[in-house]
Design brief:
single chain, 168 residues, mainly alpha, Four Helix Bundle (Hemerythrin (Met), subunit A)
Length: 168
């Protein structure tokens, strides 16, 4: 049976060994947080793009609103804008045309490409530059988050449970 004297030092060693890991996660930079939020909202939206039934991609909540697929193309437009602006290009918001993405597979491929391109640019931006300005990234995160909420409404209107709301 171990003595108290031998247990305490072993416990202390375990605690000390875990401190570098704890301090690394506690010291996430603002740039790291920005990158994580950008990736998180895009991951949730891409999951929805892949999950939503293809036969419902033309669904609209109201006649004057975008279809589910068109909302995804609109979100992708934001990612394209962010990638261009992040590379230092002088850009305007150029709305991609949903008619150019005629089915679920095309929309999903567009989302995958726009996310990969934007995340690659965001990862290449030095932390110091992000500490000076978080634009366009923060605006695109907010924009995508707003449309994520809209996509949740499309799910609910179709009697579907959004992926993030499903039991894990």
């Amino acid at each position: 049976m171990p003595t108290t004297k031998s247990v305490i030092p072993f416990s202390a060693v375990l605690i000390l060994a875990s401190l570098p890991t704890l301090s690394q996660s506690a010291q996430r930079t603002a740039a790291g947080s920005l990158r994580a939020h950008f990736a998180s909202v895009n991951k949730r939206i891409l999951t929805m793009a892949r999950d939503f039934p293809e036969d419902k991609y033309d669904f609209k909540l109201k006649p004057e609103m975008r279809t589910f697929g068109a909302v995804l193309v609109h979100i992708a437009s934001g990612n394209v804008y962010a990638a261009k602006a992040g590379r230092g290009e002088n850009v305007n918001w150029d709305e991609l045309d949903p008619k150019d993405y005629s089915n679920k597979a095309a929309v999903v491929a567009l989302m995958e490409k726009s996310i990969a391109d934007a995340e690659a640019v965001l990862k290449s931006v030095p932390d110091a530059r992000l500490s000076e300005s978080i634009e366009p990234w923060i605006s695109v995160i907010e924009h995508s988050g707003e449309h994520y909420g809209l996509l949740v409404a499309y799910y609910r209107a179709n009697g579907l449970v959004p992926p993030e709301s499903r039991p894990k």
